[in-house]
Amino acid sequence: MRKSALVIAAPVGAFVLTVLVSTLALLAFGSNPAEAYGDMLGHASKLETQVDILNRATPFYLSAVAAAIGFRMNLFNIGVEGQYLVAFLFAAQIGGLISLPQVLHILVIMVVAMVVGSLYAGLAGILKTARGVNEVISTIMLNSIAVGGLLAWLQQEWQAEQGETFTSTTLGTEPIDDSGLLPTINGLLELVTRDVGQGKELTGMLLLAIVVGILYHVLLNRTRFGFDLRASGINPFAARAGGVPPKRMVLAAMMLSGAVAGLIGMVELADRGKFPPDPIQGLGFQGIAVALLGRNNPGGMAFAALLFAFLDVSSGVLDSSGAASREIAVIMQGVVLLTAVVAYGVANRLRERDEAREAAEALLVERAAVPA
Amino acid sequence: MTAAIELTGITKRFPGVVANDDVNLTVERGEIHAICGENGAGKSTLMKILYGMQAADEGTMKVNGEIVDFDSPTDAIDCGIGMVHQHFMLADHLTVLENVILGAEPTRAGGRLDFHGAEAHLREVAEEYGLTVDVHQMIETLEVGERQRVEIIKVLYRGAEILILDEPTAVLVPQEVEALFENMRELKAAGTTILFIDHKLDEVLEIADSITVLRHGKTVATMKNTGVTAHELAELMVGSELPTPTTTVSTVTDEVALELRGVTVLNEDGRAAARDIDLVIHKGEIVGIAGVEGNGQGALVDAVVGTAHVSSGTIELLGNDITHDSVRQRREAGIAYVPEDRHHEGLLLSSPLWENAALGHQTQMPYGSSWWINREGARRQTEAIREKFDVRTPNIDVAAHALSGGNQQKLIIGRELTSNPDVLIAAHPTRGIDVGAQAAVWDDIRAARRQGLATLLISADLDELIGLSDTIIVILRGEFVATLSPDEVTPRDLGAYMTGVAFQEEAS
């Protein structure tokens, strides 16, 4: 009874606190909170905005799953950012150079993205297992190498010839044939809703993200590998004594995390058909926040990804409606994360105490039942 | 003259165990007082209480005749008590001087450090107590003995008049022990009271003025160091009045289950933690390893379990060479392991019991296979373990941390024995659990032995070793030094072998 109450109390408490703090922030900046919230919610009730939110939530979710795979074994893969950008670039370049039938073309691009992401993450894994380099340090450095080194260099190397002018539409890698682009799923959405207007397109990656979420759940909770991974995260020494090879697990978790990270860029690739000169950055870091808020739980992270996407999209709305400054959305993302972490911590401690008391009571009852 | 320290009726309970039970201790001013006792006798707990790291449940403490009540080590330090821990707490990349003043930095106006003043005071202290040390040397360049001296100076610098040394000789080579004793005599001459923990009896007899012996959390004797022999002390330490957990009929067979030949394991420093170990355990046999903690038992266990690299020698399980097999391969081949510290190596404390039961056997039915975890199978097996090994728990979904130590241990014993292993490595299987759980664990091990289980038993509880083992081997400084029959050996003899006293007597 109390147990289930605690499960709900934490997120509800965090939500109430977030609204409270955001309201105070809005008031402090001289905005009308009711008007701002009204604008945000009113806009989000429109189908077109919902498509925007889903499109935004999809890469957030993939990024969160990538980070969560590491988190579950206490590996802090801060390098999702670099991994997805490098994977995105390679997948786009190779996808642009080949021409294959539709399904195969898409599949090759995805596999390239996953392999490249996985290999790039594997570098940090090898550094850790062979040399004991902390993965936080190495992945942060690999991020810099990815963005400042690899991307800067390869973007020039692989610049497709597209006429005289240099604009964001003509720059970038060789455009991929339509056969290599994941179709949108507006049709699927329109089965249950009305027609989507304003030229908004729901990314097909949404379906893949859902599949990734399900696989993540099955992997962690049903497979031997997932058991080993979680055991290593909870107590690496007990895991090792229980036959889990520590180094191999580090490498495997890192590469798996990188493989999922490789899929993040596929949302943008399907949209723009090439690696653009100005790819969206920061998704890797957003994923860490989403994983944290969603407690590495597949459902929790989906909710967190939607919330962050909603706030992201809302910031644009506030900007244009003038109800409040767009930064309020960033403040809310930060506050919700902070309050959630605290609330979960408190709920966890209460639950542990309850369990210990129950176990102690069970002991007493049993003792009392035995005649002296 | 009032005593420097007077403890009366100190009692400290932990869930499932009484660490200190009505302990009385009087330490006179200016004397060197040794506290002896086996591992788990309650020495460390007593020192932690005296140093304010833990609060006693009952009893009173007097320092220099005044009743004190410490909330933290800071209070103890204010009363002139200083402690040197077994594991040094020094920053390697700072100099001796910087380490000494760390946490008690003298400052001049404006918050700047007063290094000159500190150095002068440090030299004064060092001179007064006859401790030589180069104040500007980096800690990382110092030998172990010198580091210890820095720790002592650090405590004296803060004005300590009563010094607690926690097993100061454990980390030292013999020459360094001599130097330490020389320093201790100088300190005593300068009026310092020293309280030190040790279980190497020859050392105690050499340096102590008075000796207090603890056993099972109780003070069993306090005496002046005049005319006491090592044998008498050993007897007091291990006691002999307790009923032993006797194993009745021998079930030892001719079939070799585990064989080690010339196994050497190196520690991180490249020194041999276990050297040239030859060991044969037959089916149905329990071989007990006796030794003072830190004499290579850990390396031996790690070598057999597979968590340590064997630098030379071979290990065979039922005739198959497993020297280079992984932990998982060894577990699948029939090695079970009850680790020394159940929280460190035994359990996933935040995971439910059924996952804990699966740990180590997740690749084997009914828990799972190489690819999948069989939740139903694992849960059924856990219920069976709960039933058979009497694990007291509301259900198998509670997290392992909710159980008492004894029940956690029963779960571990249960999971290891339920897999029907050929060889069991049991390191301190009854450490820190209550008497009832202890008896249950003994029964379980004995029952498995009848079924043909070969057991390597490491224990600091000499009654347990003598009672359960078919053969007892003494390990000292990483080597097997004696093989004894439990029928003929007393805890007192065993204590003499473990501490090396027996060999000195033989030689003389």
Explain what the structure shows.
The complex is a heterodimer of chains A (372) and B (508). Chain A is built from 14 helices and no strands. Chain A has helices at 2-28, 33-44, 47-71, 80-97, 102-131, 135-157, 186-192, 205-222, 224-234, 236-241, 246-272, 283-293, 298-321, 327-369. In chain A, helix 12 packs parallel to helix 14 (327-369). Chain A is globular, with a radius of gyration of 23 Å. Chain A starts with a helix and ends with a helix. With 508 residues, chain B is α/β, with parallel strands linked by helices. Chain B has two domains: 5-238, 3-Layer(aba) Sandwich (Rossmann fold), CATH 3.40.50.300; 256-347 and 421-507, P-loop containing nucleotide triphosphate hydrolases (Rossmann fold). Classes of the chains: A mainly alpha (372), B alpha/beta (508).
List keywords for this structure.
heterodimer; A: 372 residues; mainly alpha; 14 helices; 76% helix; 0% strand; B: 508 residues; alpha/beta; Rossmann fold; six-stranded mixed beta sheet; 34% helix
**Biggest interface in this structure?**
A-B, 31 and 42 residues
* Count of individual domains of chain B: 2
Tell me the major beta sheet of chain B: 6 strands, mixed
Structural class based on helices, strands and sheet pairing of chain B? alpha/beta
Fraction in beta strands of chain B: 15-25%
Helix count from the secondary structure assignment of chain B? 18
Q: Could you state the oligomeric state of the chains shown?
A: heterodimer
- Given as residue ranges, the uncertain stretches of chain B (5+ residues, pLDDT < 50) are none
Relative helix content of chain B: 25-40%
Radius of gyration of chain A: 23 Å
